[in-house]
Amino acid sequence: MDLQLDALNEALKAVKTLRSSVGNFFVTLSQGVRSDHGEDNKETKFILELQDLISEVNSHMRRVDQTCSCLAPAPEGLYNLGNTALLAQETTQDRQALYSELVESYKWTDKLHDCSNLTVSYLQQNVMKRTYVNAAGNAKRRRYTPSSHNVPPQTVDNVIASVDRLFSDMTLTVTRPYATNAILQITLGRSLKAVVAFKGLMIEWVLVKGYNEDFVSENGHLDLWTESRYQVFRKITDNANAAMLHFYSPIHPDLAVRSFMTWFHSLMTLFTDSCRRCGNHLLLGMPPTWRDFRTLEAFHEDCKP
Ligand SMILES: [Zn+2]
Question: Distance from the CA of 278 to the center of ligand 1, in angstroms?
Fold first, then answer.
């Protein structure tokens, strides 16, 4: 950096010397033949003097050329902002800083662009599928845009209505307290209640409580967060969220909802089922809280396969 500044200083000095020698030449030329040229051959003496001055200008010119060639070229092309460079010559004080700010913001945008490119390549290595990991090899990997979070409310209503028709003993109520996203309240026979929060057609959150509990907070709003006071329903909540993640499918979001609801419906007989493995109703004071995702068979937490 210092070297660069020294070279620049040298170049500027050379330009100054060149200017003054050019100035000298013209001053001498404008004065014409002077008395100190004497009487004999005064024109020749005058011309010789001008020739000396011109050769001086020439040598100074060479010096300027030399010093300029030592200067490193400005980083051209990198931040060539076209005509906006003229902003740097703005005479109004408060606009003078505009150009440097512009360059800064361009640099910032470039950096942002680089970072986002990196991010994209990282994210592409890890497609955010929640389930259906294709362990059998990815020969037929499909590219898709996960858009299940952005569907019209009518589509969500239709899917929920089709589920409602499947199970007559399950009461479904759809509300939309938070803009367009649906909250589904489920009453499963006389066994339990649940709220399911959707984002588009994607299930985001499941909370299960006892039949005698409610989902109303102190100020009368829908309460999606307070856990059940019963251990069994807290366990069911955990399992339901695991099921929700298991059934999640960005390609067939409606199927995911239907599969989840079918699984969830199997909890109807939570307190009457016996465990598929040990055959008992209770183990450590808990009913069989686990349902197999595929066969819907009941298992105790400690008996599950
Ligand atoms: Zn068991």
Answer: 4
Residues 168 and 261 reside in one and the same domain: yes
Which residues of the chain are modeled with pLDDT < 50? 131-139
What's the pTM?
0.53
| Residue burial 169-199, b: 16+ Cβ < 10 Å; e: rest | ebeeebeeeeeebbbbbbebeebbbbbbbbb
Q: Would you say how long the chain is, in residues?
A: 305
Ligand 1 center to 150 CA (angstroms) = 41
Given 54, 70, 86, the domain boundary residue is: 70
How far is the centre of ligand 1, averaged over its atoms, from the C-alpha of 293 (Å)? 17
252 is in which domain, residue-wise? 153-270
Does residue 96 lie in a domain region? no
What pLDDT score was predicted for residue 132? 43
Supply the pLDDT for residue 31.
87
Work out how many domains the chain is built from and give that number. Answer: 2
Closest CA to 60 of 29, 109, 92, 25: 25
Q: Is residue 88 part of a domain?
A: no
The whole-number pLDDT of residue 129 equals 55
Q: Is residue 114 part of a domain?
A: no
Residue 241 CA to ligand 1 center (angstroms) comes to 21
CA of 277 to the centre of ligand 1 (A): 5
- Is 280 a domain residue? no
Residue whose token pair is 């060479």? 62
